[in-house]
Amino acid sequence: MSLEIKSRLWIEKDGQTLMGNGRVQLLTAIEATGSLSAAAKSISLSYKKAWRLLDEMNATAATPLVITSVGGKDGGGAQLTEAGTQIVAQFNHIRSECDKLLAQLSKQLPPA
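^ thats the sequence. predicted structure below, dont judge the formating
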């Protein structure tokens, strides 16, 4: 059995969580579905929690990451802004680079 180093990654701004794996998952689901409600459902998250996370991300970021429109006869929606798309891409790149580094460092561990 080989040993592996694992970690959790998130980005903070002024002590507030801006981005992490779950938040990226939510933003990716919003991009795929065009709806906060559908995105929350697709990742087994309550609408209330999804709305809270989205509100926190938009408040913490320099510019909103998602814009929403109110439902009604024609339905509402949610869409990532350019800033939202960029931060998802940046986070995924950073996570990939961290995973590569941890895999390399895991090879240096003594056998278990």
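Helices lie at 21-33, 36-42, 47-60, 82-107.
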